[in-house]
Amino acid sequence: MAKEKSKGQELADKLFFNLKNCWDDIDEKTEKEIDEFAQSYKQFLDKGKTERECVEAAVEMLENNGFTNIDTLKDKKFKAGMKIYQNIRGKSVLAAITGKKNSAEGCNILGAHIDSPRLDLKQNPLYEDADFALFDTHYYGGIKKYQWTTVPLAMHGVFVNEDGKKTTVKIGEEQGDPVFVITDLLPHLAKEQMEKKASEVVEGENLDILAGSRPYKDKDVKEKVKLGILEILHEKYGITEKDFASAEIEFVPAYKASDIGLDRSMIGAYGHDDRCCSFPALKAIIALAKEKTAPEKTLVCYLSDKEETGSAGNTGARSTNFENFLAMFCDNESDLRLCFSRSAMLSADVNAAFDPTYAGVFDKKNASFMGKGLVLTKYTGSGGKYGASDANAEFCAKVQAIMSRNKVQWQFGELGKVDKGGGGTIALYAANLGMDVLDCGVPVLSMHSPFEVISKIDLYTTYSGYIAFLKNA
Ligand code: MN
Ligand code: MN
What we know:
Blueprint: H1 7-15, H2 28-47, H3 51-64, E1 68-69, E2 83-88, E3 92-97, E4 108-113, E5 118-129, E6 132-140, E7 153-160, E8 166-171, H4 191-195, H5 198-201, E9 208-212, H6 224-237, E10 247-253, E11 258-260, E12 266-269, H7 272-289, E13 299-304, H8 321-327, H9 333-342, E14 344-347, E15 351-352, E16 374-377, E17 381-382, H10 393-405, E18 410-412, E19 422-423, H11 427-432, E20 436-441, E21 443-444, E22 452-455, H12 456-472
Parallel strand pairs: 1-2, 4-13, 4-14, 14-20, 15-21, 16-18
Antiparallel strand pairs: 2-3, 3-13, 5-6, 5-10, 6-9, 7-8, 7-10, 11-12, 12-22, 16-20, 17-19
Helix pairs in contact: 2-12, 7-12
Bound molecules: manganese (II) ion (MN) (2 copies).
C-alpha cells in the first residue's frame, strides 16, 4: 500500500513548480519518435551548414509537402488552405498556410533564424606568407575566437561573376575532401600568449586559414603558392582573384552531427543555434499542412538570416520582407496593421542550458535545463533588460496554457545571472510591429562554439510545442 502523503507534502505538490526530467516517463513509442526526429534533424544539419544551404533544404522539404513558390502564382488571390512559400534571396524563407479567417484577425507565427556564427572570407582574402597560401577572414557573429583554431574547417558558399553566373562551392564535407584549419601556437612557445586575456589569445585579424603550400612550378613568377591555389580555383570554378569581391564564402566546422553520450541522449553539432529551432518550426508547419481542413488563422514559419549580427540587412528580420509577406494575405494597409497587432509569434530561438561546470554564471532557479523541455524566455537583453521586448504577462500565460493543455513540458529560462552578460533574438522586431511575441526554444550547451550540444528530448518537446502553438494561439 502506498504511503499516505503528509499535509505538507500535498500542499507542496500543489504550490511548488517542480519539473521532471522529460526522459523519466516516456513510453517506448514516443522514445522511438524522439530518435527518428533526431535522426532527420542531424541530416538537416549536415545538409545545411550555411543560411543558403538551409534555405535549399527547407525549400525542398516545403515543395515535397505541397507548398508552392509564391513567385510562380499567377495571381495573389488566396483561398483558405493554400500552402505557399517565399524564398528571400536564397538566404531566408517564409512559409504559410492560409487560414479560414481573414488575415486581419492575426496570424500564428513561428520565427527562427538559420544563420550561425562562422568565419567569412574577406573581399580580398588570399595571400602568401612564408611559402603558405592563407585565407584572411572576418568572423561572423559572437564567437570565442580561440575555439576556432585547430578545428577542421570546410569551405561553403557562392561566387557570382559579373555575368551573374553563380557558382556554388562546398569543399571539406565529402569523404576524401581536403579540409582547412587555423593554426595555434605550440604550448612550448605560448608562454606570452597564455598570459593574455581569453579575448586576446587569438585575435580576430589572426583567424587566417591555411589554404595550401605547394608552389606553382615556374621560377619566374612571384607568390608561387598563391598562384597555385588560384590555378586550382580557376580550373574548378572558373574564378579569378577579383571574384572573391562578389562572393560569400563561409568557413564552418567540417565534421558531421553526432550523437553524444553512451546513452545517445544528446546531439553534438555545429549550428544548433538556431537550426534546432528552425527545423522543428519547419517540421511543425509541414505537419499541419497535412491536415485535411484549413487552419482557422493563417500559419506562418519564418526562417530568417542575419540574426547573429543583429538582424540588419535585406535578408534579416529587421527588413520589411517579413511585413511584405504578411501584406500579401491582407486586403489593404489597415488590415495589415490589424494583422500585425493581432498576430501571435513564438520567437523560436535557443537559450543557454545550465552547465554544472560553469554553474557560477547561472541563476539556478531561473536557468533552463537540458532534458526538461522547451524554454520560455520572457525577456532577453542585457544590463537591466536593455533592448528586450519583454513579453506581456497575458501572452506568457496564454503560451504556458497552450503548452500545459497539450502536455508539452515547458521551463523558464533567463540567460544567466543579472549583469553577467546577455543577448537578443528576433523577438523585439516582431514586438515592434505590435505583435505578441515570446522566445521559445531549445536549451543549448556550449552555444556559439564549433560544437554545440542539445538534448534529443528537448528538440522533440520543442517540435510538439510549436505544433500546439500554431494550432491553438
Ligand atoms: Mn539564436
Ligand atoms: Mn546565437
